[in-house]
Amino acid sequence: MELTAWRTFVVVCRLGSLSAAAAELGYTQSAVSRQVAGLERQLGVALVERQVRGVRPTAAGEVFRRHALVALNEADRAVRAVREVRDGAPSRPLTVGATPSLAAGLVPAAIRRLLDVAGPLPWSLSPGLSARLHDRVIAGDLDVAVVTDAPPGLPDDPRVERRFLGMDEMVVVLPLGHPQAGHGPVDIRALADQTWVEDNDGSAALLRQHAARAGVTARIDLAAADLPGKTALVATGHAIALVPGALTGALRADVTTVPLVDPPTRGIHAITPRRAPHPSATALLDQLATAFARR
Question: If we measure between CA atoms, which residue out of 63, 68, 53 comes closest to residue 4?
């Protein structure tokens, strides 16, 4: 099998669309369809199923996707290693992933301090949700991932090392001028009549659990695609939202935050692969722990 078709299949799964994969890869949609169909013929099993909106991998396709991602990343690393030897630049890039709230401030600050201490180092930072970042560490795509144990939690995986960085208290983000703006810790019951917006299942679960403990229901009537969309709906007065405390310093200027009484919390962890860790990974973990402690 050629890796070109494997790469195409992985992109189709990531985007959930043959046409979107074709646009990203520079192929026609029919060429993408032929590559996926060719893989299915070689493997003797359907790899994707068509839906009203796009495609998704079958059970067999998901198994193949995970293994294909590992193989593709190893192939890319092999090519980079050879080119580095050829070009006399053996410095291995440090690839870092983080949840969106941590990628907005804490993680870049830790990388900055690492570079100040260790000197120039090629690096990259990719945002993503915890489960996806965990998979990318396993696949060899990331050297370090900074993730949370918000629902559904983190898997107990022997293939990774996990370092606990600290607990993060969730806060409520409000539009400027909201009646609760500027107040001290607010009881969730005082916000029971408010419209809430959420952008991911983990944060929504924390909000629902916290409200349930207080004997009320949080009305999550609006959904956003990401944190910027979530805070935009708050800024324009459509809703209020639960956000990580670690995000507070990176929020836009037209919103404000208030703490909650007995707030929900989430643990922050850094995960690295047990096999072939990056030489600078431990130093970055130390800087992450320092950055979290100084918040």
Answer: 68
